[in-house]
Specification:
The complex is a heterodimer.
Chain A (H helix, E strand, L loop, with lengths): L8 H9 L6 E4 L3 H8 L6 E3 L7 H11 L5 E6 H5 L3 H9 L4 E7 L2 E2 L5 E2 L8 H7 L4 E5 L2 H12 L5 E6 L14 H13 L7
Parallel strand pairs in A: 1-2, 1-3, 3-4, 4-8, 7-8
Antiparallel strand pairs in A: 5-6
Chain B lengths: L8 H11 L2 E6 L6 H8 L5 E4 L3 H13 L3 E7 H17 L3 E6 L12 H13 L2 E5 L6 H15 L2 E6 L1 H4 L7
Parallel strand pairs in B: 1-2, 1-3, 3-4, 4-6, 5-6
Helix pairs in contact in B: 1-2, 1-6, 3-4, 4-5
The chains are: A alpha/beta, B alpha/beta.
């Protein structure tokens, strides 16, 4: 491991989602899904159970469609590494209402904790900065997590955070996995029941 | 006396997308889409979203729909191969997907490296639960796209319109 990683992933996600209000959340495949579910099931969370590498772009499409709402993508280092080009595509659009937060444990947690590229020093925050994110940072303290949430509320995006967390495996908490249900309840909560009639 | 003007099918596609209220245009450029891309870019109601790879567009379309907007994905047939795993999300969540695919690797192809994916494009899409329309007749392309858009956005399915290489003309590399 490159450096000591001390933050607790569940505490990080709980802080980002505290009093979430009308925040829209896209959760990436794997443990970020369990972390978001552990913070409480919510129809305005869209958890990806597949399509690895897609979380950031789902967040972009959502942020462009809903410029008056804050959109938080919570994903893992392995998931983001599979779609690194997404950071460049977000950098072209530069939506102020989008934050991409990577829970970086430097490992593929669902497949046996094999090292990801970040364990070898690949610097996701530097890549995001180079792609034109307004602010990009590596976070190792809870105070910085809380500041990230405040900056999203202030529409200072696009924001990127590579949050260094401990490589542990908290208890599994699963969101629903029926994709049509997840999509339809998200749209109903965001757009109203009439969305089903559009 | 000049000959008949070639049918302006890119304008017909643009009109069909406009009528379908498409707001996000995700694309990896292709020569066959060049005029359509210009028409969309000139429309302030359409957001152009260039991609680094085509599967980004599949994810973008899903996010747009979650947010209440309609999107289209423009690409060439080589890009279809990049999309396959991500298309699983479209099928399992019943997201609408409209994609317009310019074909390479078929009629008059000069570059042999384009041929395998070109040949595999319709079958790959169908295996990934995408309904495939092929629009060969220039005067019918607008209607085909309009129908594909209605099918996708009203019935929550993925629909691809393939524009054959014979329509667009094969790239010759000056040979």
């Amino acid at each position: 491991m490159s450096r000591a990683n001390t933050l607790d992933r569940r505490a990080v996600v709980a802080a980002l989602l505290a009093e979430r209000g009308d925040l829209l959340v896209v959760a990436g495949l794997g443990a970020p899904n369990w972390d978001v579910a552990a913070a409480g099931d919510n129809p305005l969370t869209f958890p990806l159970w597949g399509a690895m590498g897609s979380a950031a772009m789902v967040g972009l499409g959502l942020a462009l469609a809903q410029p008056r709402r804050d959109v938080l993508v919570l994903t893992g280092d392995g998931e983001l590494l599979m779609g690194l080009g997404s950071l460049a595509s977000i950098g072209v659009q530069r939506p102020a209402n989008l934050a991409v937060a990577v829970l970086d444990n430097e490992a593929y947690g669902e497949t046996g904790m094999q090292a990801t590229h970040t364990a070898h020093g690949v610097d996701l925050a530097a890549i995001a900065a180079g792609c034109g994110f307004t602010r990009s940072e590596a976070i190792r303290e809870m105070a910085a997590v809380e500041a990230l949430r405040a900056r999203l509320k202030a529409r200072q995006g696009p924001l990127f955070a590579q949050i260094k967390i401990a490589a542990d495996t908290p208890p599994l908490v699963m969101p629903p996995r029926d994709g049509a249900l997840l999509k339809n309840r998200f749209r109903a909560a965001l757009l109203g029941a009439d969305a089903a009639l559009a | 006396m000049s000959g008949a003007q070639p049918h302006d099918w890119p304008a017909d596609i643009y009109a069909a997308l406009k009528a379908a209220q498409v707001k996000q245009v995700a694309y990896v450029p292709d020569a066959g889409h060049a005029r359509l891309l210009k028409l969309c870019a000139a429309d302030n109601a359409m957001r152009m979203v260039p991609l680094t790879t085509e599967e980004e567009g599949v994810a973008l379309v899903a996010g747009a729909w979650l947010g209440g907007e309609r999107a289209v994905l423009l690409m060439q047939s080589s890009g279809v191969g990049n999309c396959i795993n991500t298309l699983g999300m479209i099928a399992t969540c019943q997201f609408p997907l409209l994609t317009i695919v310019t074909m390479r690797g078929e009629f008059g192809e000069f570059n042999p490296w384009q041929v395998p994916m070109g040949i595999a494009t319709p079958g790959s899409l169908e295996l990934a639960n995408v309904i495939v329309h092929r629009a060969s007749e220039p005067a019918r392309i607008g209607d085909t796209v309009a129908g594909a858009a209605r099918l996708a956005f009203s019935s929550y399915v993925a629909v691809a319109v393939l524009l054959p290489q014979q329509l667009i003309g094969a790239k010759t590399f000056g040979k």
